[in-house]
Amino acid sequence: MLADRWGCSAETVRQLVKSGRLSGFRVGRMIRIPARSVEDYECASIGLAASTGGSSSHGGRMEPEGAIVLTHARERKPRSRR
């Protein structure tokens, strides 16, 4: 959802979390990213102070706890050539 919102790949979002530039945490195979962390990152990336008012549309469904969920895509097995 977040990758769609930002127009990047899900791997880019995973790398931001892994590097610590975007806060998030794992629950099983999912990465949960608090909505506030997304807003703070977006504001910092465009050079504005973090707003305390309403945020822009996140382009998808928000979890009840106020987090955006990034699920890990299942790895595809290569097809065998006959």
Structure explained in plain terms:
This protein is of the alpha+beta class. The chain has one domain (2-51, 59-70). Helix content is 32%, strand content 15%. The chain has helices at residues 2-6, 10-19, 35-45; strands at residues 25-27, 30-34, 67-70. Strands 1-2-3 form a 3-stranded antiparallel beta sheet. Strand 1 (25-27) and strand 2 (30-34) form a beta hairpin. The radius of gyration is 15 Å and the shape is elongated. Mean pLDDT is 74; it is low at 48-62.
Summarize the structure.
The protein is of the alpha+beta class and 82 residues long. The protein is built from three helices and three strands.
Mean pLDDT: 74
The tally of strands reads 3
Range of strand content: 5-15%
- Individual helix count: 3
Number of domains: 1
What is the element string, with H for helices and E for strands?
HHEEHE
Name the features.
3 strands; three-stranded antiparallel β-sheet; elongated; 82 residues; 15% strand; alpha+beta
Topology readout:
Blueprint: H1 2-6, H2 10-19, E1 25-27, E2 30-34, H3 35-45, E3 67-70
Antiparallel strand pairs: 1-2, 2-3
